[in-house]
Design a protein that fits this description.
The termini are far apart. Helix 1 packs parallel to helix 3, helix 8 crosses helix 17 and helix 10 runs antiparallel to helix 11. The protein has 24 helices and 22 strands. The chain has 5 domains: 195 residues, Hypothetical protein af1432 (Orthogonal Bundle), CATH 1.10.3210.10; 135 residues, Beta Polymerase, domain 2 (2-Layer Sandwich), CATH 3.30.460; 92 residues, Ubiquitin-like (UB roll) (Roll); 86 residues, no CATH class; 76 residues, ACT domain (Alpha-Beta Plaits), CATH 3.30.70. Strands 1, 2, 3, 4, 5 and 6 form a 6-stranded mixed sheet that branches.
Length: 661
């Protein structure tokens, strides 16, 4: 009887959105999985099958197709029973078996170091998502149910580990896939286990505030209902509390207390058609004063995760800010379920073409991230991925009017690599809205970007100081490695000793008084500033013990010190404060050649009262000038404004600090 009730409930949910669906596959998967997990128990004391059944119900709540739901019922079978992928294929066909195997591959991660295990897990998640998005939908449903039942998992550090991984990987993936509802619940559950006291305090305070502000919320809804009806706009108006994690992040990011956060409840308006969204916006702005800078049109320019809506913030009837989101019913469905909405049509009228295109772009992005895993060490990749998953997006245009989405803070180099790897490699400058800008220039939404290229140009190590996207960073490092300029820190440790005939770039050194640099815990050690990277006060530095000559001091990102094979000979060094000296550095510039270019650049340097030891310029075949300067400064803070002023000289495309020749 219990079996029939569980199965009937699941089938009724599916029939509510797929009335013509053949549910035999779901029934067969249900019975097969229940038998396979027979006798297994969860830590909660419930039969293990309660978990895959819960996963199937979550997938059904997303209105997913019967194939995905059947795979959800079977998703733990390969991992936790004697049933093989071939057995599943024989019973349910290749498609279901492929989904189950994909989920199992994501789940099963070899025993490696914690960072490497995390990266390997992420690699499998990204690759599985690129191949068939339904794999990650099943995995997200699996993680959501595990988070809902996390209290049964001892000890506390396991709860923390799983919640931390969820916050770092699964919640941001749900966000990037446009699954706002799932992302919100995952984040709130993470807050509950990562910061339990904060969670309890927030929950209590938010419930109190909602009760206090209920009158104002109802008043706002009544006014909007009346005005929208009068204007002939059919719409539903809802008041919706923000997620706990969203409020917690706002408090942390803005340094505000809970009492200073006013927009705890947002207003959501769901219209029947697109034109009514803009009509509703006009009514809201006529009723209440909009706050400047808070209007966003994500309908005209959707987010990368397919999200569309109009956002505005107004001073409402209680003289406090109210955030308002306006969208159609279809947009709201995509905002809640994201890519899952793509599969709503599979057993119906066929997939939506626009969703197909957006899903293809998402898959391409995930595949790029997965490929870039080989280009950086695990910690750096996680940091880069967080930037791309969490950072706000900007929308920029090609000269042909095509839209590209990049993380805030992205530069022309990031844009060039987003268009094509070859364009990024040959990038030598950029025009933003018709004006030449340096390559480190930060892009803004609405910018039209034209990349200037040359077959003689190539990636520069200096670009790593300002690029934002993992694709750009990965390709630059790949190029540098291929040119024997850089070896990854993770590879250096086990790198073989070079053969005699393999000559490394010569490292010239200059003596430096140890009064300017200190070695942690060591005195009377001869120190030399390496000429290959010319460190100066303000740079992060590292020492490397040489044979019979003390230690050479390098910038921490110097390719030569990263190439040196014995990490045990690296020592921690630091600049002493209050000790002044002068240091020679080299800077290079790339510019459009013109009369007076070198003179103008020398004047800029001279006005800073900086000694110039050397200056020269060479003209390339494509009308560009490569300028080189050797100057004397006493600190990095002295060098930075010189570079900034040189970048403003007419025709200059790029200025950067260089290694010695």
């Amino acid at each position: 009887m219990e079996i029939e009730e569980e199965l009937n409930k699941l089938q009724e949910t599916i029939r509510s959105y797929l009335p013509e669906a053949d549910l035999d596959l779901v029934r067969k998967a249900y019975l097969f999985a229940k038998e396979a997990h027979k006798g297994q128990m969860r830590l909660s004391g419930q039969p293990y099958f309660s978990h895959p059944l819960a996963v199937a119900n979550i997938l059904a709540s997303l209105n997913l197709d019967v194939t995905t739901i059947a795979a959800g019922l079977l998703h733990d079978i390969i991992e936790d029973t004697q049933v093989t992928a071939l057995d599943i294929e024989a019973e349910f066909g290749r498609l279901v078996a492929g989904l189950v195997e994909g989920v199992s591959n994501v789940t099963h991660v070899a025993r490696q170091t914690r960072e490497r295990r995390k990266i390997e897990n992420l690699r499998k998640v990204l690759l599985a998502t690129a191949k068939d998005t339904r794999v990650i939908l099943i995995k997200l449903a699996d993680r959501l149910h595990n988070m809902r039942t996390l209290e049964h998992l001892p000890p506390l550090n396991n709860q923390y580990r799983i919640a931390h991984e969820t916050l770092e990987v699964y919640a941001p993936l749900a966000h990037r896939l446009g699954m706002g509802k799932m992302k919100g619940e995952l984040e709130d559950l993470c807050l509950k286990y990562l910061h339990p006291q904060v969670y309890c305090d927030l929950k209590k305070k938010i419930n109190e505030v909602i009760r206090q502000r209920e009158v104002h919320i109802d008043q706002t809804k009544r006014i909007l209902d009346e005005k929208l009806e009068k204007a002939g706009i059919k719409a539903e108006v809802f008041g919706r509390p923000k997620h706990f994690m969203s409020i917690y992040k706002k408090m942390a990011d803005q340094g505000k207390s809970f009492d200073e956060i006013y927009d705890l409840v947002g207003i959501r308006i769901i219209t029947n058609d697109l034109k009514d969204c803009y009509g509703a916006l006009g009514i809201i702005h006529a009723l209440w004063t909009p706050i400047p800078g808070r209007f966003k049109d994500y309908i005209a320019v959707p987010k990368l995760n397919m999200y569309q809506a109009l956002h505005t913030t107004v001073i409402g009837p209680a003289s406090s800010p109210i955030e308002v989101q306006i969208k159609t019913e279809a947009m709201d469905q995509i905002a809640e379920d994201g890519v899952a909405a793509h599969f709503h049509y599979k057993e119906g009228s066929g997939p939506d073409k626009e969703l197909d295109e957006k899903l293809f772009y998402l898959k391409k992005t995930f595949l790029e991230w997965q490929q870039n895993l080989d280009s950086v060490d695990p910690t750096e990749f996680m940091e880069n991925l967080k930037i791309e998953l969490f950072t706000k997006e900007i929308f920029v245009f090609t000269p042909k009017g095509e839209i590209n989405v990049l993380p805030a803070g992205a530069t022309p180099v990031d844009f060039a690599y987003r268009i094509h790897t070859e364009i990024g490699d040959q990038c030598l400058g950029a025009k933003i809205n018709g004006r030449i800008v340096p390559l480190r220039h930060k892009l803004s939404s609405g910018d039209m970007i034209e990349i200037l290229t040359s077959s003689k140009a190539h990636p520069s190590g200096d670009w790593l100081n300002f690029v934002k996207t993992s694709k750009a960073r990965g390709r630059i490092k790949q190029y540098l490695r291929e040119k024997l300029l850089l070896t990854e820190p993770s590879q250096t440790k086990d790198a073989p000793i070079p053969k005699r005939e393999e000559k490394r770039p010569q490292i010239k050194k200059r003596k430096v008084s140890s009064s300017g640099i200190s070695v942690l815990g060591v005195t009377n050690l001869a120190l030399n500033l390496a000429k290959c990277c010319n460190p100066l006060p303000g740079d992060e530095i590292i020492g490397y013990i040489t044979i019979g000559r003390g230690a050479s001091v390098h910038r921490t990102n110097c390719p030569n010190v990263l190439n040196l094979s014995d990490p045990q000979r690296r020592i921690e060094v630091f600049w002493q404060t209050g000790k002044e000296g002068t240091y020679e550095v080299e800077i290079s510039a790339l510019a459009h050649n013109r009369v007076g270019l070198l003179k103008d650049m020398l004047e800029v340097i001279s006005t800073t009262k900086t000694i110039i030891n050397e200056a020269d310029a060479k003209v390339t075949g494509d009308g560009l000038a490569k300028c080189h300067f050797r100057i004397v400064v006493n600190h990095l803070d002295r060098l930075k404004p010189i570079i900034a002023q040189l970048e403003k000289v007419e025709g200059v495309l790029e200025v950067h600090r260089t290694r010695s020749k």
